[in-house]
Amino acid sequence: EIIDGFLPFHRRTGSDKSHSYFESNILSVMSRHRTFEGSLKAIFSCRTPNALYEMMNPGFRDRYHKLNLQNLRTGRQPTLEFRQHHATKDEREIVAWVRFCVLFVVNASKLQPLAGDGIIPNATFDELFEKIVVCPILREYYSKKRTSFENGD
């Protein structure tokens, strides 16, 4: 999960809090479909919004996933929630995360549907920022964060 790489360890899949507050969507899907490829096929086979919401946020703890689609599912609000980021008062970090999320959603919505079997290759940090987020400033910011975390800072 690419985003894990530029967030603190305590906000990554496998951390003590991940199952309680921000479970991996793809791992939830994989728990039912066994493989990454099978999970992607299951996601792409969803024919209705509700089928997708159930696939991405299944079961009793449906809200506690990195990408929470429950407001769309219930009709409470026309919003989705990115739950992975940690609480912070750092304005620069808040602005970077908001910009990242907005660009991710807006630009991903413009992508063409996948051809063929719907299987995408494992994406990289560079591909995320070249093809979806497309913002050199954010790429540099999160590249520095990623390096900092890799170095144990």
Structure description:
The chain has 153 residues and is mainly α. The protein is 50% helix and 3% strand. It has helices spanning 18-21, 25-33, 36-44, 49-56, 70-74, 91-109, 125-132, 136-150; strands spanning 67-68, 81-82. A two-stranded antiparallel sheet has the order 1-2. The protein is globular and about 40 Å long. The mean pLDDT is 87.
What would you say about this model in short?
By secondary structure, the chain is an all-alpha fold. 50% of the residues lie in helices and 3% in strands.
Radius of gyration, Cα only, in angstroms? 16 Å
Give me the number of helical elements: 8
Q: Main beta sheet, described?
A: 2 strands, antiparallel
Largest beta sheet: what is the strand line-up?
Answer: 1-2
Q: Mean pLDDT, as a whole number?
A: 87
Strand content: under 5%
Low-pLDDT ranges: none
Overall structural class, as computed from helix and strand content, comes to mainly alpha
Shape: globular
Helical percentage: 40-55%
**Record field, number of beta strands:** 2
How far from one another are the termini? 20 Å
Quaternary form = single chain
SSE pattern? HHHHEHEHHH
